[in-house]
Amino acid sequence: MPQCVFHNLTGYDCPGCGFQRALYAVLHGDIARAWKFNPFMFFIVPVGLCYLAVELSRRPLPKLRRIMFSPAVLYSLIGVIVIWWIVRNL
Q1: Domain span at residue 14?
Q2: Each residue's pLDDT tens digit, 17-62
Q3: Structural domain tally of the chain?
Q4: 3-state SS string over the chain?
Q5: Left, alpha or beta for 61 (phi > 0: left; psi -120 to 50: alpha)?
Q6: Residue 62 and residue 54: Cα distance in Å, rounded?
Q7: Could you say which of 26, 36, 64, 72 has the lowest number of CB atoms within 10 Å?
Q8: CA 1, CA 23: separation in Å to the nearest integer?
């Protein structure tokens, strides 16, 4: 599997380090192993699927779309990613 360029250059884990191995483990039914690789995946995948569902929805969902793409929600998601990045490298 490809290695993380950020990790190879700095020695620190990025928020996505281990994501591919975790996804592989989940797809093979090994949840505990996936959690060890990258527990953040269990947060970011459902969030990403929600965004994808809203974008691909046949029926327009303007209220939900407005909330999901509001600056407060997007900045919160970025904040969660940055916090995860810091915490996993402590």
Answers
A1: 5-88
A2: 888 889 999 999 999 999 999 999 999 999 999 999 988 887 888 8
A3: 1
A4: CCCCHHHHHHCCCCCCCCHHHHHHHHHCCCHHHHHHHCCCHHHHHHHHHHHHHHHHCCCCCHHHHHHHCCHHHHHHHHHHHHHHHHHHCC
A5: beta
A6: 9
A7: 72
A8: 12
